[in-house]
Amino acid sequence: MRRQQRGVTVWLTGLSGSGKTTIGESVHKKLSAQGYKVEILDGDLLRQNLSKELSFSFEDRNENIRRIGFVAHLLTRNDVIVLVCAISPYQAIREEVRQRIQDFIEVYVNAPLFICEQRDVKGLYKKARVGEIKHFTGIDDPYEPPLYPEVECRTHQENISESTSKILAKLEELGYVYLKPL
Fold first, then answer.
1. Domain span including residue 33
2. Residue 122: how many CB atoms within 10 A of its CB?
3. How far is 73 from 89, CA to CA, in rounded Å?
4. Is residue 163 part of a domain?
5. Is 3 part of a structural domain of the chain?
6. How many domains does the chain contain in total?
7. What is the pLDDT of residues 64-91, one digit of tens each?
8. Sign of the dihedral defined by the CA atoms of residues 167, 170, 175, 181, in that order
9. Would strands 104-110 and 8-13 be described as parallel, antiparallel, or unpaired?
10. Catalytic amino acids?
11. Residue 109's domain is classified under what CATH number?
12. Is 99 exposed, middle or buried (0-12, 13-18, 19+ CB in 10 A)?
């Protein structure tokens, strides 16, 4: 049986390799197990499908985030809990998306660059360091950390369960979910 729920977008932002998708999948699993309608919008998958013609220029990155925000808005207004896992490096565009969606929780998935580089299974940071990839966030393109995120997950200091619990607690505190003990 599905529960009555209010839609909300939980926007996980952070460097590549910080843990956005891992945390998003963990939150998804917990909420789904309690009967909530939840969708994950993964930045990498959306770029391959919704924004494949876009480059990594400042303008195209912003357009990509606008598109992700538009999809998140549609789902949110239809009472879905949306977990967006996207680097989304620029503060201004994240704020623009927040204003559009309104039911919005920003989660800063914070890990130092050197930790993200150690976690880099795809070798993207190495390629960026030697110039094979241009405009790579954190290397030759800036990442603007959130100024006032509702949640901050420090993935180099806490485990996935702790980060997941922080997000679930914020959703419950703000009245988007009521979690039964499992």
1. 8-173
2. 10
3. 19
4. yes
5. no
6. 1
7. 999 999 999 999 999 999 999 999 999 9
8. positive
9. parallel
10. 88
11. 3.40.50.300
12. exposed
How far is the C-alpha of 126 from the C-alpha of 132, rounded, in Å?
A: 9
pTM of the predicted structure, to 2 decimals = 0.93
SS3 category, 152: strand
pLDDT at 42: 93
Percentage, residues of the chain above pLDDT 90? 82
Q: What's the mean pLDDT when you consider all of the chain?
A: 93
How far is it, in rounded angstroms, from Cα 51 to Cα 135?
A: 17
**Is residue 91 included in any domain, yes or no?**
yes
Among residues 144, 51, 158, 56, the alpha carbon closest in space to that of 106 is found at 144
Q: Name the residue among 84, 90, 154 with its Cα closest to residue 116.
A: 154
CA pair distance 10, 171, nearest whole angstrom: 9
| H or E stretch at 43 | helix 43-49
The residue written with tokens 């590549």 in the block is 16
Tokens standing for 54? 């876009």
Q: Residue 1's pLDDT is what?
A: 43
pLDDT band at 37 (very low <50, low <70, confident <90, very high): very high
Q: What average pLDDT does the segment 27-44 reach? A: 95
Tell me, yes or no, whether 182 lies in a domain. no
pLDDT category at 181 given cuts 50, 70, 90 is confident
